[in-house]
Each structure stands twice: as structure tokens, then as C-alpha cells.
């Protein structure tokens, strides 16, 4: 369970949680699966709200989740195309656009913490320690992400708000891959030995491992 004695939320950070997958490999909506008695999406939300000033949940199915989360939770409705989601990259673009619009009446944060909804091993203290390093990220870097031999970890890391223009240009050219977009962008590598934090729960076998 997330640490209830976490430090004061970071007022320089906005969080976005993507909740748009089909959960086809799990066979049921993984966002609702209980992990130690707490629905997975609620666990991720609890971590995010402990780390960020504002948390947005991006999903086509707000009605499915709104009773699960605190009453004042902020939803952004993901736009479908022919009844289908367009993937996490497009969802991120839609969310970032709406988050910037909603923040126009107040000071906008420079950084966004992007999280998938299926990360059962997130740790508040780890994310907060990473966030403290954002002040040292080079100015031309659009993101601060962990990297491993197979590529970037795009759905558990930090993006500058001003990456939106570059992101939309990539999408307008037909791009849909986080890896391709990041590989052609300036990204600073987040040094991390906490590899377990990136574990995502996609299958019943993965779910069984959360108890280990």
C-alpha cells in the first residue's frame, strides 16, 4: 500500500494517468483488480496525488471509474476514433492539451509525471526522489525517463509541458510510437536501479506476481 506518511505534494508537478487500454491479455479490466484489497487504479492515483499538485485521469470511460476515486478527481475524456482508442501516445497528446487549457487560469507547472494505470509497484518516495532531480535536467530535453536495452520507459517518467508542439507534429505525420518519438527527441536518461517500479500488470500471471 502507498506510504501514508509521504511528504507534502509537489506543487511544481502535474500528473497524468492513462486509463485507456482494453486489458485484452488480462481478460478483465485490470484497473479494477484489487492489489492487497485496493483497486489498482486507486493505488496508482494515491501515489500520483502524493507526488503532484494536480492529477488528471485520461480515459474514454469516466463513468466506469468515477465512483472508485475521490469525488474531486479530474477526468479528461479520451477521444475515440471509430469506437477505438488511438493508443497511449495520442491519449497523452489529448491529455496534455486539455490539462494546459484547464491550467490557463493558474500557474502552469513545467513538468508532467506520466503514469500508466497498471503499475502496482510504484513507490511515492522513489518518484519524489526522481522529481527532485528535475531542476538539473538539461534545458533542451523534452523528457526525463529511464532507459534499458529494449528502449525507453515512457509510461513512468517525466515530460516537459512544452513537448506538446513537437509531439503533435510527430502525430500529425502519422507517428504513434512512444519509442520512435523519443528516439528522435532529446531525452535525458533517468538513472534508476529501482527496476521493479516499472513492472506492469498485463496478464493473470503478472497479477499473481504482485503478491510476491
Question: What structural class is derived from the secondary structure elements?
Answer: alpha/beta
- CATH architecture verdict: Alpha-Beta Complex
Termini gap: 14 Å
Largest sheet, if any?
7 strands, mixed
How many domain units? 1
SS summary, helix count: 7
CATH class: Alpha Beta
Unreliable runs, pLDDT <50, ≥5 residues? 1-9
CATH topology: Spore Coat Polysaccharide Biosynthesis Protein SpsA, Chain A
Structural shape: globular
What is the string of SSEs from the N terminus onward? EEEHEHEHEHEEEEHHEH
How would you explain this protein's 3D organization?
The structure is a single chain. This protein is α/β, with parallel strands linked by helices and 212 residues long. 28% of the residues lie in helices and 19% in strands. The chain contains seven helices and eleven strands. The strands form three sheets. It has a seven-stranded mixed beta sheet, sandwiched between helices. Strand 2 (34-35) and strand 3 (38-39) form a beta hairpin. Residues 1-9 have low confidence and may be disordered.
SSE layout and pairing:
Blueprint lengths: L12 E6 L15 E2 L2 E2 H12 L2 E6 L2 H4 L8 E4 L10 H15 L8 E6 L7 H8 L11 E3 L1 E2 L2 E2 L3 E5 L3 H9 L5 H6 L3 E3 L14 H6 L3
Parallel strand pairs: 1-4, 1-6, 4-5, 7-11
Antiparallel strand pairs: 2-3, 6-10, 7-10, 8-9
Amino acid at each position: 500500500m502507498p506510504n501514508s506518511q509521504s511528504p507534502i505534494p509537489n506543487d511544481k508537478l502535474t500528473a497524468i494517468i492513462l486509463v485507456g487500454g482494453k486489458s485484452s491479455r488480462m481478460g478483465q479490466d485490470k484497473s479494477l483488480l484489487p492489489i492487497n484489497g485496493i483497486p489498482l487504479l486507486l493505488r496508482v492515483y494515491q501515489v500520483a496525488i502524493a507526488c503532484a499538485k494536480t492529477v488528471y485521469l485520461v480515459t474514454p470511460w469516466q463513468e466506469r471509474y468515477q465512483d472508485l476515486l475521490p469525488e474531486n478527481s479530474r477526468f479528461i475524456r479520451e477521444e475515440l476514433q471509430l469506437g477505438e482508442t488511438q493508443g497511449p501516445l495520442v491519449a497523452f497528446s489529448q491529455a496534455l492539451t486539455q490539462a494546459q487549457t484547464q491550467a490557463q487560469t493558474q500557474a502552469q507547472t513545467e513538468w508532467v509525471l506520466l503514469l500508466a494505470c497498471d503499475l502496482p509497484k510504484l513507490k511515492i518516495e522513489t518518484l519524489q526522489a526522481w522529481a527532485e532531480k528535475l531542476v538539473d535536467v538539461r534545458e533542451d530535453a523534452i523528457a526525463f525517463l529511464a532507459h534499458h536495452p529494449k528502449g525507453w520507459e515512457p509510461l513512468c517518467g517525466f515530460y516537459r509541458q512544452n513537448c506538446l508542439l513537437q509531439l503533435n507534429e510527430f502525430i500529425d505525420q502519422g507517428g504513434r510510437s512512444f519509442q520512435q518519438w523519443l528516439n528522435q527527441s532529446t531525452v535525458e536518461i533517468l538513472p534508476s536501479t529501482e527496476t521493479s517500479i516499472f513492472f506492469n500488470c498485463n496478464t493473470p500471471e503478472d497479477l499473481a506476481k504482485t503478491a510476491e
